[in-house]
Amino acid sequence: MTDTRIALVTGATAGLGRAVAGALAGHGIHVLVHGRDAKRAAAVVNQISKSGGSAQAVLADLASLGQVRELADRIASDHNAITLLINNAGVGAGRPPYRKRQLSADGHELRFAVNYLAPALLARRLIPALKNGAPARIINVGSAGQAPVDVADLRMDNHYTGAQAYYRSKFALAAFTFDLAEELAGSGITVNCLHPASLMNTHMVRQSMIPPMSTVASGVAAVMNLATGSAGGTVTGRYFDGRSEARAHQGAYDPAIRSRLRTVTAELLAPFLTSSGQATR
Question: Is the residue at 29 inside a domain?
Fold first, then answer.
């Protein structure tokens, strides 16, 4: 390891996450490569090591909040301080006609669970380690596709489509970003959200049967702008489209909407949070 900076990248075994992990390692950062599959995670670690970087694999299925909690606690135990959390892992809209609803291990709609609840829980449980590593950064990889969450139907028992579920999860992630940034103001931790690039050439996009429009490299540049660039260390509570500051869905800024989402999220995550140094609302 060339310095003391440590970054956790979720969903780092393929696509954007894998490329970002390699880019961070190229900057001398020790990368915690998260994935579900041990062989795929090991392959990324080996690739980084062969390029002269430093990395290690950390495994968890983010569809299980219990495993998310164990992942965070294992990282905090092994590393007293981390400097960067990139919540990149996600589940896309799926295959057309996007009608197959899936539930997580805890019974939540799968996209809401993986794209929103998992990064929210991971961030909260890692706040002490991030404070120890301050100045530190949290980057939530979102999407320009956003739609307000129906808190009365979080499982989307009615009118389900994978695309709508995806949009709702990314709306929630943006709203959470703004909330957490306010909570952590003055802590030395910045929290920002970004749409890295439109329809990158990744498995998620190819699975949706939509022709890719952007390269993974363009998404990496956007993430690295916040991860290692000056912008990510000077602004907080912002939404970026690529490398430019932009506006998320207007509803994500609405105090009443955010309050309702914050309340229901706190209820869902309560069993997986403790009072010992964790940020709570």
Answer: yes
Q: Which residue segment(s) compose the domain that 200 sits in?
A: 6-272
Say if pTM beats, i.e. exceeds, 0.90. Answer: yes
Q: Which of 135, 101, 132, 113 is nearest to 235 (CA)?
A: 135
**What is the number of other CB atoms lying within 10 angstroms of the CB of residue 159?**
8
Which residue shows structure tokens 């219990």?
66
Which residues are within 8 A (CB) of 81 and not within 5 positions of it... i.e. 6 or more apart? Answer: 4, 6, 129, 130, 132, 133
Mean pLDDT of the chain: 92
Complete DSSP assignment for 26-43: HTT-EEEEEES-HHHHHH
Which has more confidence, 60 or 275?
60
Residue found by looking up tokens 């980084």 in the block? 48
Q: What is the CATH number of the domain that holds 143?
A: 3.40.50.720
Residues 6+ apart with CB under 8 A from 22: 44, 47, 48, 51, 53
- Bridge partners (DSSP) of residue 140 are 87, 193
Number of independent structural domains in the chain: 1
Q: How many CB atoms lie within 10 A of CB 39?
A: 9
Burial (CB count within 10 angstroms: exposed 0-12, middle 13-18, buried 19+), residue 206: middle
Distance of CA 32 to the CA centre of its chain: 14
Q: Give residue-wise pLDDT tens across range 230-271.
A: 999 999 999 999 999 999 999 999 999 999 999 999 999 999
Q: What angle do CA 96, 201, 226 make, to 5 degrees?
A: 115
Q: Is residue 232 part of a domain?
A: yes
Q: Is residue 280 part of a domain?
A: no
Query: Does pLDDT of 277 surpass 80?
Result: no
Q: Does residue 168 belong to any structural domain of this protein? A: yes
Q: So which residues are the catalytic ones? A: 166
